[in-house]
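Checked the freezer inventory, then went back to the computational side. Two predictions to log before the end of the day. The first one is the construct we discussed on Monday; recording sequence and tokens without edits.
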Amino acid sequence: MKYLRPIKPNKYTHKDDLLNKTYAQIQQEALPISTFTMHSVSPKLFAGNWSLFREVFLVDNQVSREVKEAINLAVSKLNTCPYCVDAHSIMLSGLKHEIIAIAIVNNDLNTIADPKFISIVEWALSSNQPNHPLQLNPPFNNVEAPEIIGAALNFHYTNRLVNIFLNKAFIPLPFGKGIANWVVRKVMIKTGLVGSSRNAGKSLVLLPEANLPDDFKWAASNPFIAQALSRYAAVVEESICKFVSPDVRNFVEQNISKWDGQNKGISRQWVETLTNELDLQSKAIAKLALLTAFSSFQVDKTVIDEFKTYFSLDEELLAVVVWASFYTARVIASWTSVH
């Protein structure tokens, strides 16, 4: 892991400490993998991130696990997140769907038999295009929407953090190798990503209840996912308001809200121009946030060091990256018109 030092469970603190309670749930139902533990420098973000993941992915309701994993893989491919592409190819293999994983990675969806499955993957692959026909008329209903849009939102969010804080490769899967698939399935059973579904709502005890923001109305038909989203949105807002001024927050959020989904290209000149009139401290925040939102692969040590000139704590670094990633994922989710 780069730039952050995760906090491990602390046997010397009370077992009901939020950090330890969150670790306990993760260890009971999954594994403390890096995509979770990178959030541990902020116990509330750690709890909220776990809750959102759990209620969307580990609880089967209207949408099967393999469909949600296919969405994860498609969104990760769209966002050019090699780590997550590897990881969710492996997840699909663990669910005995190697053919679907290969089809998505190779952009050859004709090998998928189920037409609705294909249409949902195509929807995920077009989720960065606000006026795409599949965003205006999605191939799922409002009862399925919390799990389907929730899965895509989660990985538009997660991909950005992974591109910044983790290495570029997970464990590339040697597709078609029987022993590899057997090992993968054993690991997936251990992590809870195959096997029995979890009971909904268990993670909600970690954070206080929150009102559902208007842009999450698509989640209203599933109260557990709706609350996981609402509670996470509340702690993300709380964490960023501690040290980023309203003016800087508004500047970043307005620029993200105006985004049309287009790639910014390989140069970082656009962000230098955009933030040129800000004072140096505000510019360091805005550059990190906007690069996270639009070009997370371009966040490097130079950008991090510039930010750390003013903010030295891991919790502050995580707060900005989480805020920018989650706000961007919310905007992308709003592009889907749920009927």
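The second is the one RB wanted added to the comparison set:
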Amino acid sequence: MARRSRGHDFLYEVSSVPLQQALRHQHTAFVNFFAGRARYPRFKSRHGRQCATYTRSAFRWRDGRLFLAKMDDPIAFVWSWPEIDPAVINPTTVAVSRDPDGRWYASIAIDTGTEPEPLPVTGVDVGVDLGVSDFAVLSTGEKIPNPRHLERKARNLARYQRRMARKQRGSNNRARARAKLARAHTKVRDARADFLHRTSTRLVRDHDLIVIEDLNVKGMIRNRCLARAISDAGWGEFRRQLEYKTARAGRRLVVIDRWYPSSKTCSACGHLLATLSLSTRHWTCPGCGTRHDRDVNAAKNILAAGRAVSACGADVSPQGSSLRRSAVKQEAQPARAGIPVP
């Protein structure tokens, strides 16, 4: 109906399939909103990310060349998977998108019909304690430094932002300044994504069981002093990558309750401190005299609690928060009493 209305003749310049897909995406967004899974759908800005989805009736894939509907010539692109021959694939959906920095992408969905093979068993488990000074501290004592991508580029981003603010709205100079600012943000985003993918892939490849905490990231970023550092770390994206990579590789990811006192509990004897300030990075156990690094000790306790939850078979999914909390508290009692957890 929108095509027939006055002022919408430009809709005839593109295929009807991406327009129909946009309506389907809108319907899905409203269904998620009324189900309580998402916020109210918002209108998309023309200056943001643009995307058009083509199904099998609106594109052709011939000998590694992509033909879209209402386009006579094939689209020139750079193939990002050198180990896969583009001439032998059979795509089901193609999504063409443009980022705010002006770069174009073609995302191709392929139905392989086969499940990925699980990785070989390593017999090694690990607990991961996420932080700000160090991105992650493992129960093995390894500390993964926080690259702080946004902090390293903050001065350049602020300079590009000031330059754009001085340009007249609607002018070509402002459009070029906006593109430069978008490219600077894209570099930060790509660097962060590369770091998270490399770190999560290494953890999944080298460990059979990975245990992390269920952090309340949305609540933590309300702290004005730590909001930027927490957002730059990307803890939520890191957990999302671990979830799908462990499922694909045949590994197991255990998420323990956020209220488990991993930092205040001695990993050697199980003694529980009454209080422990955030500024205290090392402490000595009054029960056994063991000197602890705060983050390494927390990672060891996270691993012990995750093994206990894994052994009892409790629900560790994000939807089972209350059950997970009771299971962790019950199964963590032997560790506090000095009895080793299997």
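For RB: Residues 315-342 have pLDDT under 50 and may be disordered. The radius of gyration is 25 Å. Let me know if you want it refolded.
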